[in-house]
Write a structure and sequence with these properties.
This protein is an alpha/beta fold and 283 residues long. Helices cover 25% and strands 24% of the residues. The chain has 2 domains: 37 residues; 243 residues, 4-Layer Sandwich (Purple Acid Phosphatase, chain A, domain 2), CATH 3.60.21. The chain is globular. 43% of the residues are buried.
């Protein structure tokens, strides 16, 4: 039987410990300095049964959770705007949390977001963090930058005499959400998209005539470990935390983007910031 001396054992233990320490240090550096700034432009096709033929291959850019502030600077927003312009979408949708905890950065956000334009417009809803910066100020800033903020209301997109409805609900968690007001006068058989910051409220909307809900809020968890998943997701953002979901016994699908910025901790791991490019298709 081969045996090792105490000195050999201590040497090997030290080597293993240093290796683990090096791996942990590298992961820490990567999750703090690399991944939060490594934007993924994610393309996805979503089939909608009631989509009018005129809107087949209609392209939507969806982004969320900028959290401009201490951790996410205007440079990240500038890169985002450049990527959106490169995609050349038909419609731009933002699902809340422009700021993190302060209105100090709102003028920068207005200047940069003012560069965004799409043929069918730019639309937004507010998120829970927007309440920290006063909802009135955030609404004003988004409006000044060319976004129409949907407060429990909807608009009609028209193309070749056909209609696609886009509704937006106020933040269901900290705002004054009224989904029935947002959907009022929309025909039941019309194709309807909904902007709502927190994804998990989709369970409350599953019996309503909505085809696709676009949400953010969860950040995808920010830190996702292999074989484990997200270590933490916020309230109302854990069930539908990232990606596309089909609700059972419902026409409603939910797409949750991982968002752009960070909050609480300035890290991302296995959960890159996401700009989503959605192509609608008739099923």
């Amino acid at each position: 039987m081969n045996t090792i001396s105490r000195r050999q054992f201590l040497k090997k233990s030290a080597q293993v410990s240093l290796g683990l320490l090096g791996t942990a240090s590298a992961s820490g550096i990567y999750s703090h300095w690399v991944e939060p700034y490594w934007l993924e432009v994610k393309h996805i096709d979503i089939k909608l049964r009631l989509l009018p033929p005129a809107f087949d291959r209609f392209r939507i850019v969806h982004f969320s959770d900028l959290h401009l502030g201490v951790y996410t600077k205007s440079e990240a927003l500038t890169e985002l705007v450049q990527q959106i312009q490169h995609v050349n979408p038909d419609l731009i949708c933002f699902t809340g949390d422009l700021l993190d905890h302060s209105v100090d950065y709102i003028s920068e956000a207005v200047d940069i977001c003012s560069q965004l334009r799409a043929p069918f417009g730019q639309y937004a809803v507010l998120g829970n963090h927007d309440a920290f910066g006063t909802r009135k100020a955030v609404t004003k800033g988004l409006t000044q930058s060319g976004f129409h903020v949907l407060h429990n209301e909807h608009i009609v997109l028209k193309k070749d005499a056909e209609a696609l409805y886009l509704a937006g609900v106020d933040d269901p968690w900290v705002g004054k959400a009224d989904i029935h007001q947002a959907l009022r006068h929309i025909p039941d058989k019309a194709c309807t998209l909904l902007l709502a910051h927190e994804p998990d409220f989709a369970d409350e909307y599953s019996d309503l005539p909505i085809d696709l809900q676009l949400s953010g809020h969860s950040h995808g968890g920010q830190v996702r470990l292999p074989f484990v998943g997200a270590l933490y997701t916020p309230p109302h953002g854990s069930k539908y935390s990232s990606g596309l979901y089909q609700l059972p016994d419902s026409r409603l699908q939910v797409y949750t983007t991982r968002g752009i910025g960070v909050t609480r901790m300035p890290v991302r791991f296995n959960c890159r910031p996401e700009l989503t490019v959605i192509t609608l298709k008739s099923s």
